[in-house]
């Protein structure tokens, strides 16, 4: 009787130990229900935008230069003369660094001027076999055509000091064969980098404020940041005179140029964690 009771007690002790071992194994395997510090963390994800603005320090000038001649060689030679005048006019305004000028397109074309076959307006010299209503009608090849070669080069020039832009446009207006198609105020590389950092910092401040409001001003920790959008808003520009150069003799006119303000925008998405 006594031996049976001792045996029963021993079996109960072994059973309890087995249960404890099983529970410990489950916990170590991650299947237990023990509360850890991780389960007390909350998460919040917010999106925010920040901006930064500044007055551009440089300008970009878009232009093309033409040379015309009765032959391709003649047109190219005349283009070279116009390019030399361009270089001379721009040299000091690009700080003596011609690498601030870049050719973006070049072409050499033959252009034939004259009337095609068919009815011509009255008064055009040539054959007399035309009608009074439509004018004179000429057979193909019976009129005098003028052949002209045109060499053209498109150039983009960076003017390091935007305050010189009006002087540049004025100087180029005195050079025949040069045509300005566009002028824009632009940020320098250093300005772009600096403004982007400021815009990013502003976006982070806005994101943190949103997250704190949602988390009840709990202490926040950043888990992940994603830049979802970046934009540079080009500034408007205005010219107070014609932007086409080389049309009027050698009279130099300096137009008014308005640089305006450039804005950089950063949009981010941030995930924060916080203690509940």
Offer a concise description of the structure.
The protein contains 4 helices and 9 strands, in the order H-E-E-H-E-E-E-E-H-E-H-E-E. It has helices at residues 2-28, 72-90, 165-172, 189-214; strands at 41-54, 58-69, 101-113, 118-119, 137-138, 146-159, 178-186, 220-233, 262-275.
Helix and strand topology:
Elements (H helix, E strand, L loop, with lengths): L1 H27 L12 E14 L3 E12 L2 H19 L10 E13 L4 E2 L17 E2 L7 E14 L5 H8 L5 E9 L2 H26 L5 E14 L28 E14 L1
Characterise the protein shown here.
- The strands form three sheets. The chain has a four-stranded antiparallel sheet. Strands 1-9-8 form a three-stranded antiparallel sheet.
- It contains four helices and nine strands.
- Helices cover 29% and strands 34% of the residues.
- The radius of gyration is 39 Å and the shape is elongated.
- The model is unreliable at 23-37, 125-134 and 235-251 (pLDDT under 50).
- 18% of the residues are buried.
- The protein has helices at residues 2-28, 72-90, 165-172, 189-214; strands spanning 41-54, 58-69, 101-113, 118-119, 137-138, 146-159, 178-186, 220-233, 262-275.
- It has a single domain, classed as 2-Layer Sandwich (Alpha-Beta Plaits).
- The chain is α+β, with helices and mostly antiparallel strands and 276 residues long.
């Amino acid at each position: 009787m006594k031996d049976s009771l001792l045996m029963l007690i021993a079996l109960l002790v072994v059973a309890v130990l087995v249960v404890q071992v099983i529970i410990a194994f489950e916990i170590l395997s991650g299947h237990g229900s023990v509360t850890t510090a991780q389960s007390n963390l909350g998460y919040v994800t917010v999106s925010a935008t920040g901006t930064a603005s500044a007055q551009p320090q440089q300008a970009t000038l878009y232009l093309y230069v033409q040379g015309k001649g009765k032959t391709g060689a003649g047109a190219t030679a005349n283009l070279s003369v116009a390019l030399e005048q361009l270089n001379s006019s721009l040299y000091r305004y690009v700080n003596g660094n011609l690498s601030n000028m870049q050719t973006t397109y070049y072409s050499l074309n033959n252009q034939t001027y004259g009337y095609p076959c068919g009815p011509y307006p009255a008064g055009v010299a040539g054959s007399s076999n035309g009608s009074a209503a439509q004018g004179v009608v000429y057979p193909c090849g019976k009129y005098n055509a003028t052949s002209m070669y045109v060499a053209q080069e498109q150039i983009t020039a960076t003017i390091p000091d935007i305050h010189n832009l009006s002087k540049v446009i004025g100087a180029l207006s005195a050079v025949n064969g040069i045509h300005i198609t566009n002028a824009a105020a632009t940020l320098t590389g250093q300005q772009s980098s600096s403004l982007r950092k400021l815009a990013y910092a502003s976006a982070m401040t806005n994101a943190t404020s949103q997250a704190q409001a949602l988390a009840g001003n709990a202490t926040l920790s950043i888990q992940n940041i994603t830049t979802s959008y970046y934009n540079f808003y080009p500034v408007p520009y205005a010219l107070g005179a014609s932007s086409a150069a080389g049309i009027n003799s050698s009279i130099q006119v300096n137009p008014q140029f308005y640089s305006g303000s450039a804005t950089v925008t950063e949009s981010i998405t941030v995930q924060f964690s916080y203690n509940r």
